[in-house]
Structure formats: C-alpha cells, structure tokens
C-alpha cells in the first residue's frame, strides 16, 4: 500500500496539486470553478466526455444541495470517480482467473516497449514466491533481444523459458510451451508475444494463431489475454486498447509505468470506453513493482 502511494506520487503531485489549488483559489462554487475542474479532469486523461459528464453531474448536485464551499465538493468528486469505475464494469472480475485444473495460460499482448516482458518477469516472481510452478514462453521470435530479455527475467524469477529459433514460427514456440506445461505439470504458463506496430494485420493474425494453438491443446485456455499498456502515453493507450480489443478479445489490462505519470486518469477512460477491467499495475522497473489493481485505493491515491 505504501508502494502504491509512492508510485502515484507523481500523479498526485501534478493532478492533486491542481485540484488542491482549485479548492484554495476559489471562494465560491461558481461557473469558473466548474470550468477549471473540467479542465483539470481532462488534463488527468479521464477522457473528454467523462470530464464533462462528471462536471455536469456535480453542477447539478451542488445546485440541489445548495453547496457553497469548494472544499465540500472535493469528497464528492473522489466518490464519483470510484463509483464511475465500479459502475462501468461492476460484474467483471478484477483478479486474474485460474484454471480449475491443469495449467493456467496467460497471454500477454501489447506494443513494443509497453512493458510486457518486465510484467511477465514480475508476475513469474510473484507466482514462484507463492509456490507455483511457472513456465515462460518467448513468442517474439523476430527480435533476438526480446528472447534474451525474457531469459534474464526467467533467471531472476526462477522460471524456465521455452524459446524457438530466431525468425521461427511464434505459434510453434507456444505449442511447445503448452505441451511442456501439460507434460511437466506446470501450474502457470506466461506467454510473451511480439508487439511490432509496422504491420498490424500480420501481428493480429499472429496473435490469433497463437491463441488458437493454445485453445486446441487446452480447451479453456488462455484463461486471460492481458493487454499491457504504457500509462505515460495517455490517450494513445486508449487507442491501442481499442485496436487490440477489436482482434484479440482482451480479458484484462496491465497498466505499466504508473510511477512516472500524471495521467493516471486513463484507468477510468479505458474502463468507461471498453469495459475491460484493469487487473495489474506496474509501479517501477524492479521485480517487486507489480500490484493487483484496487479501484478504491487507486482513485483515492490519485486524488488525495
Ligand atoms: P515490452 O517491449 O513490451 O516487452 O517492454 P519491456 O518489458 O521491455 O519494457 C520496456 C521498458 O519499460 C523497460 O525499460 C522497462 O524497465 C520499463 N518498464 C516496464 N514496466 C515499468 C513500470 O511499471 N515502471 C517503469 N518506470 N518502467 C517500466
């Protein structure tokens, strides 16, 4: 929880400071106040529509309840954002789903540099610490460095890596990994994939093929298709989420680099537009810097 606070320090400083300044600078809750509030929300990347909606709702409530003090509005804003997150997908699971028997397969997708390999390393470490048998698959066969990097993380986390020939078929690597996971009774298989954007159609076909190979070997797998997004890219992350979700059914989002951004509001925008739950958040480059996503803590941390 302390880590959560530290990770969000930068978000809080910029966005939180703006909010605090807003409450300090305004003596009354007037139209200028609402304009400033709306701008602050847009700046935090909650998305234009949501910023306008929340401000409108607030304007209405303030009128009905005859609120005069800006500080009285603060708590209402925080509560509204938490409610927003929950209302946009209350019947979805926030936690990672596991297979009831046999290996659980988690497929990681996302553009290069988003943090896929790092997240897999961190997650492998968590599961190993919890006593699970974990296998990794390096299905980005186009970049030699990608496989090497996964191997480095595999060693750190104490999880073996299945890799293929350079330029080989990524689906073949995944096939080998799934078969090994079954034969050697692994609990969890984490699959790293390519994220080159130069040829999107090719990439999406490749991901689709990988997914089919997994399902053919294990009927209910993959249990999760996690899209890894770099939160510092703000609204671009939302565009990427839409593109990936159109072709591979994404079951959850990993939002990385929340330790280095003032744009944490993107969590709400993604949830609102795509109804996909954020399952994990990356809060740094170290092996322990990965946490389950908790909407309440997150929103309060952001707006404190
Ligand atoms: P991939 O290409 O999607 O596999 O991305 P990588 O896992 O190689 O990560 C790209 C860069 O982002 C690396 O330098 C990582 O150390 C860094 N990175 C990943 N996750 C985080 C995070 O949560 N916080 C910070 N600050 N850096 C991260």
UniProtKB/TrEMBL annotation:
Transmembrane segments: none annotated. It comes from the Bacteria. The keyword Thylakoid does not apply. GO terms for molecular function: GTP binding; GTPase activity; signal recognition particle binding. GTP binds at residues 110-117, 192-196, 256-259. GO terms for cellular component: cytoplasm; plasma membrane. Keywords: Cell membrane, Cytoplasm, GTP-binding, Hydrolase, Membrane, Nucleotide-binding, Receptor. Residues 277-290 form the SRP54-type proteins GTP-binding domain. It is an enzyme of class 3 (hydrolase). Its EC number is 3.6.5.4. It catalyses: GTP + H2O = GDP + phosphate + H(+). It is a peripheral membrane protein. One of its GO terms (biological process) is SRP-dependent cotranslational protein targeting to membrane. It is found in: Cell membrane; Cytoplasm. Belongs to the GTP-binding SRP family. FtsY subfamily. Part of the signal recognition particle protein translocation system, which is composed of SRP and FtsY. Involved in targeting and insertion of nascent membrane proteins into the cytoplasmic membrane. Acts as a receptor for the complex formed by the signal recognition particle (SRP) and the ribosome-nascent chain (RNC). This is Signal recognition particle receptor FtsY. The lineage of its organism: Bacteria, Bacillati, Bacillota, Bacilli, Lactobacillales. The gene is ftsY.
């Amino acid at each position: 929880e302390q880590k959560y606070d530290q990770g969000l320090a930068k978000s809080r400083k910029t966005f939180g400071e703006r909010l605090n300044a807003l409450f300090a600078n305004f003596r009354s809750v007037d139209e200028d106040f609402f304009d400033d509030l709306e701008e602050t929300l847009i700046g935090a990347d909650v998305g234009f529509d949501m910023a306008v909606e929340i401000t409108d709702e607030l304007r209405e409530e303030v009128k009905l309840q005859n609120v005069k003090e800006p500080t009285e509005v603060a708590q209402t804003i925080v509560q509204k954002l938490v409610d927003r997150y929950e209302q946009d997908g209350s019947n979805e699971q926030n936690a990672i789903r596991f297979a009831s028997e046999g290996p659980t397969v988690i497929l990681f997708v996302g553009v290069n540099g988003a943090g896929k390999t790092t997240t897999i390393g961190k997650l492998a470490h968590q599961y190993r610490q919890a006593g699970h048998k974990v296998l990794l698959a390096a299905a980005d066969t186009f970049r030699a460095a990608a496989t090497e990097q996964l191997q480095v993380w595999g060693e750190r986390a104490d999880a073996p890596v299945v890799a293929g020939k350079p330029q080989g078929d990524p689906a073949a690597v995944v096939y080998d990994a799934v078969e090994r996971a079954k034969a050697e009774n692994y609990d969890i298989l984490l699959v790293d994939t390519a994220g080159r954007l130069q040829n999107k159609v090719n990439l999406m076909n490749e991901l689709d093929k990988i997914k089919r190979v997994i399902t053919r070997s294990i009927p209910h797998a993959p249990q999760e298709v996690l899209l890894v997004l770099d939160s510092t890219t703000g609204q671009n992350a939302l565009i990427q989420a839409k593109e990936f979700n159109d072709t591979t059914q994404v079951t959850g989002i990993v939002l990385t680099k929340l330790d280095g951004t003032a744009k944490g509001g993107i969590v709400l925008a993604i949830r609102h537009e795509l109804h996909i739950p954020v399952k994990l958040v990356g809060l740094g480059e170290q092996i322990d810097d990965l946490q389950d996503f908790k909407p309440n803590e997150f929103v309060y941390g952001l707006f404190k």
